Amino acid sequence: VWCMQSDDDLKSMFVGTVMRKIKSRTWKKQRYFRLQEDCMTIWYKSKKAGNSHSTFSVGDVEAVREGHQSEVLLSIADEFPPDRCFTLVFRGRRGNLDLVAESAGEAQSWIKGIRKLIDNLENMGQREKLDQWICDWFKKADKNRDGQMNFKEVRNLLKMMNVDMNEHHSQSGTLEDDEFVLFYKMLTQREDVLRVFQEYSSDGQKLTLQDLKDFLREEQLHEDGVQQYALKLIERYEPSDTAKMLQAMTFDGFLMYLSSSEGSIFNPNMVDLYQDMTQPLCHYFISSSHNTYLLEDQIRGHSSVEGYIRALKRGCRCVEVDCWDGPNGEPIVYHGHTFTSKIFFKDVVTVLGNYAFKASQYPVILSIENHCSVEQQKVMAQHLTQILGDKLLKSPLDGKIPIGLPSPEDLKGKILLKGKKIGGLENCMNGVVDDPLMGEVSDEEDTAEIDDDHHRNDSIRHRVKKSKQRLSKELSDCVVYCKSVHFSSFKHSQIHSKFYEISSFTESKARKHIREAGSEFVLHNARQLSRVYPSGLRTDSSNFNPQDMWNAGCQIVALNFQTAGVEMDLNDGLFSQNGHCGYILKPTFMRNTDERFDPENPQNRDGYKPLSLSVQVISGQQLPKVNIKEGSIIDPLVRVEIHGVPLDQAKQETRYIDNNGFNPVWHDTLQFTIHVPELALVRFVVEDYDKTSKNDFVGQFTLPFICIQPGYRHIHLLSKDGTSIPPSSLFVHVRITKLM
């Protein structure tokens, strides 16, 4: 294997190391860890003889964090120095693995070694991923580890791989060579792509430069610089040097191109930062999280700084804290009046300082729901100023009284506090100091939420007290461009409100405003920021549909990032463009204060140009198993969903294919009309059809309509929690045409 070569870190990982696995201050046990020959699997067991071992795949590790960067390791910081400690963070919802090595050198070997292995995996091409995937399955199926496959093992392997194989086989009970060739062909052959290749190939063997240019023009709809582009594709994806010299492409090269990012449905030019980042903050949709400290539900869930790390690393730009008076004058963060566990405010601020700008340089908004006494508010202000230093924005950018919101570009590397403020920006600039006790502000969130939903749910009933609260001047001064105010009406806002004021709406209030005054809401959001958050009744941390709120131009649509599902798929889909930076520029008609865009009646706007979207779902490749335990093979169907303005909401499905998750073929065409392409998201979902109960989720991919590349494209599927599941994909043909 590539990794056996002279790498000292990996060599010591092959030999193996004893490290302590830490679960708490009191649970610290020694385990023997070592890297297996495949360079993909890490094996570990306790030192006692006879105990079973565990393994995990390097592919499941999302990141390696050095030092005391988890609550568990922070709790034993006095016992083990940071240079011996590290944390493995897994994808999805699996818990972290906190480890302490015997020496700093051994810790470094593992930290550097695992990072190298992760990098290598991420740089693998689609073809290598397929080979790796097949090898992984072989290892799982070769039960007696003799490196050969008897028929029973092969049949189990195919079943695990979602392939149906008939019983009639040779008497010898092993896989014979001709069967093996057939078997390998079946694993890797792509009839669907071959058909397209032969349609454009003059001699059935290769695509000449002209053939490839014809394909790129007619199918992929490339217009400019086609010659240059075709040569670049041959250079990049053609494995055969002979073909390269002839400026031609073989079938292998063609398949590699179609499986690459250039052959993906997502336009590569829109993956990186491509939007104007110099508009006022209120002109962007902002990736936002609700009750960021919770990893589970809202009543008994575990509070953790891990919630902040995960959200920030996913590109989230607005995080939330609920602050309450804590012991020894230290404010704490938790979901008030519930049984969720508690963490210190200062630990949250430290994590914010460390992780705010890892995924994106653009500003982070810290939304504070403040239930603290004036004394502990002063402590909060101290922590913010001392821990964040220059990162915390404490005064308007150029020292002058501002006339509008600054842009994400202006605010790069800055953390903005959103909260109550005594007086306005103008006063603090004129050096007028208000009486610090004048800041009586009402507790808008919980009260509004309960009145709104008319449910007198006992566990939350006693929160309904219109509390008036005093604000410390120190904390108030940390709020510059995001002053929280109560919303009375659009009319009132238009006359009285300031550009730096921001109101919060529960999802039901926001929906009511959209129904009754959609275009007013859009206009309001062209002038200032709005935040929408989930109803207090969603104690299970479920989410509302963010699309309805984006349709009205609401910028800060706060979702429970810890809860997988269609709502987070849409959020990930919208923010997967523009360099994953957490800011997406709103369409022009939502930024213009002289336009009247009503999401409920989109046909009335200037520049209304509906489009037709046609998707031919051709085939699927290596779809994941839904349930490894049952011997069942999936019956896949594909659903294409359009999420956008109400007129665009639509979904259509292919038929289902019996018993084939390995290489199902549909050739079904689905047709949609899109009235507001600028706001639409398209979600591709694969499900396992079940006639008696709800279909099981298999995989999905969501992207903005404007990021779709037409022609023959692969869609690389994601799992329920948004992580990739190579080599699972769909192969489709996409056409977008004007209707008017």
TrEMBL record:
One Pfam family from the record: PI-PLC-Y
Membrane protein topology class: Peripheral membrane protein
Species for this entry: Cyprinus carpio (Common carp)
Localization per record: Cytoplasm; Endoplasmic reticulum; Membrane; Nucleus
EC number of the protein: 3.1.4.11
Protein name per the record: Phosphoinositide phospholipase C
Class of the enzyme per the UniProt entry, highest EC level: hydrolase
Alphabetized Gene3D superfamilies for the sequence: C2 domain (2.60.40.150), EF-hand (1.10.238.10), Phosphatidylinositol (PI) phosphodiesterase (3.20.20.190), Pleckstrin-homology domain (PH domain)/Phosphotyrosine-binding domain (PTB) (2.30.29.30)
Keyword Transit peptide (UniProt): no
Keywords: Calcium, Cytoplasm, Endoplasmic reticulum, Hydrolase, Lipid degradation, Lipid metabolism, Membrane, Metal-binding, Nucleus, Repeat, Transducer
Domain named EF-hand: residues: 129-164
Domain PI-PLC Y-box: 475-591
Domain called PH: residue spans: 11-119
Superkingdom, natural source: Eukaryota
Domain C2, chain residue ranges per copy: 593-719
One example GO MF annotation: calcium ion binding
A GO cellular-component term linked to this record: plasma membrane
Catalysis performed (reactions): a 1,2-diacyl-sn-glycero-3-phospho-(1D-myo-inositol-4,5-bisphosphate) + H2O = 1D-myo-inositol 1,4,5-trisphosphate + a 1,2-diacyl-sn-glycerol + H(+); a 1,2-diacyl-sn-glycero-3-phospho-(1D-myo-inositol) + H2O = 1D-myo-inositol 1-phosphate + a 1,2-diacyl-sn-glycerol + H(+)
Keyword Lipid metabolism annotated: yes
Cofactor(s) needed: Ca(2+)
Gene Ontology biological process terms in this record: intracellular signal transduction; lipid catabolic process
